[in-house]
Amino acid sequence: MGVLEELQPQKVFGFFEELCRIPHGTFDIQRISDHCVAFAKERGLEVVQDEAGNVIIRKPGTEGYENSAPVILQGHMDMVCEKRPESDHDFKKDPLQIYVEDGFVKAKDTTLGGDNGIAVAMAMAVLDSDDIAHPPLEVLITADEEVGMGGAKTVDLYQLKGSRLINIDSEEEGILTAGCAGGIQYEAEFPLTRTSENGVIVSVRIHGLCGGHSGMEIHKQRGNGHKMMGRFLRKAYLDTPFRLISIDGGSKDNVISMDVTAKVLVSETETAQKITDLALQMKEIWDHEFMGEEPNLAVDASFLEGEAMAATFQETESVIQYLVLVPNGMIEYSRKLESIVETSLNLGIVETKEASVRTAHLLRSSVESRKEQLKEELDQCVTASGGTPFVTSEYPAWQFQLHSELRDIMVASFRELYGKEPEVSMVHAGLECGIFVGNRPDLDCVSFGPDMFDVHSFQERLSIASTQRTWEYLKTILKNCR
Predict the structure, then answer these.
(1) Is the separation of the CB atoms in 75 and 116 below 8 Å?
(2) Which residue from 117, 168, 331, 429 lies 20 to 30 Å from 125 (Cα-Cα)?
(3) CB of 269 within 8 A of CB of 240?
(4) Cα within 13 Å of Cα(249), Cβ side
(5) What is the percent of the chain where pLDDT is above 90?
(6) pLDDT of residue 429
(7) 3-state SS assignment for residue 168
(8) How far apart are the first and last CA of the chain?
(9) Please, is 268 exposed, middle or buried when counting C-beta atoms within 10 Å of its C-beta (0-12, 13-18, 19+)?
(10) What's the pTM value of the predicted model, to 2 decimals?
(11) Measuring CA to CA, how many Å separate 303 from each of 201, 225, 262, 273, 277?
């Protein structure tokens, strides 16, 4: 018996549970891609799988809709893989341990993958049905969305016959998304010439932060572990200079850093004690500043005598300077759309390599010129701190269109079902629609989805009631796309 078997809509949650049994982190999508292909073939549906793992499944329209214009249902197959530090879950081989609690579907100590498994599950439920009215369907399930949107960039959109695309990758019920921010994946590297030396190794770890999606949660001012560590290291260095051994934290540029550890080398135990005492003092300062909004924040500090490979004092200063100077978080709200973030950036990864420290950021803005300005500001911070900047990937904003036939249908369908108007807005997170429209300008795209909270973190949860309502809404939309 499945964990979600008694939930409604039964087919949607049944297919979602099947997806949760298959590892499908970004860049590890072959198994989930093959699963989607097998699903289609078992039902005699036309299916295409490309080299990137993108899957397109086609189903004819139902009676009375045979000659209607096709509709594209779209979502991505990969998920962000984050877990609690103490978890031994292996995302490469272990199924997600899903459970139901307080009206939500959750996963034990890990991300759930509701972003965007619920889109795939809803599309599968429509494809599997024989009682849902719909026009000819083209279901596009893309690969590797969460890091660089690689699948969306490579898929041949001109093999799709439809021009109306419904993206099911939004996370707030009742909001139709008709535009999104563009992004730049940005990295910097700072050289280290580490040498072996005996002394006292001090280790400081900041963890237990809420974290979350660097687009959807960026305005909530959650603590970024990397910026907090930079602040602490600067205070410690000004009082008692040390040499950096390593600093490591974060695994995704689109996840607000929850856990970071720094190790430094000093010559005396007395100096090490000062640094560990300061770490505990900073914990008290942060608790006061966050005012209860980071309830699980923890700071661990310890030291021991030993030998370590440490950077020079100058290199240590350079890394600390960058962590302190680099802007982070929400930069500016939209001047036209109330409460919508226009521009932000997230320092998601800091890692120590053999001869360098690497940082990875995700810059977002719905205004291309502001996105470029933010990149130029980071360039200045990097070079002033002795580092080398480079862009690894970039994707365009999805500009809001004044006229949209699909949006009109979806607004009317919402009104029909709920007796009220939906909110039509833009989202600060990146959506594949920006790439789709950039590569095929005739596409008419709208995004929606059920309520999900704390995506990209191990606190991710999917509302059961909202999923059921969203499913009814999707069926209404399809019925009205005659």
Answers:
(1) yes
(2) 429
(3) no
(4) 27
(5) 91
(6) 83
(7) coil
(8) 38
(9) exposed
(10) 0.77
(11) 5, 20, 12, 8, 11
User: 404-454: per-residue pLDDT in tens?
Assistant: 999 999 999 999 999 999 999 888 888 899 999 989 999 999 999 999 999
Give Cα 260 to chain centroid, integer Å.
Answer: 18
Please confirm, yes or no, whether 145 is among the known catalytic residues.
Answer: yes
Q: Tokens standing for 256?
A: 């607000």
Q: Which of 145, 253, 342, 444 is catalytic?
A: 145
Q: One-letter amino acid identity for 69? A: A
DSSP H or E segment with residue 388: strand 388-395
Backbone angles phi, psi at 66, to 5 degrees: -55, -35
SS (H, E, C) 184-215: EEEEEEEECCCEEEEEEEEEEEEECCCCCECC
Task: Say if residue 390 is exposed, middle or buried (CB neighbours under 10 Å; 0-12, 13-18, 19+).
Answer: exposed
- Local structure of 401: helix, strand or coil: coil
Cross-strand partners of 262: 204, 247
Task: Kindly name the residue from 17, 18, 78, 138 that is annotated as catalytic.
Answer: 78
pLDDT tens column, 265-280:
999 999 999 999 999 9
Q: Which two structure tokens, joined as six digits, stand for 409?
A: 């249908």
- Report, in angstroms and rounded to the nearest whole number, the Rg of the chain calculated over CA atoms: 24
pLDDT of residue 421: 95
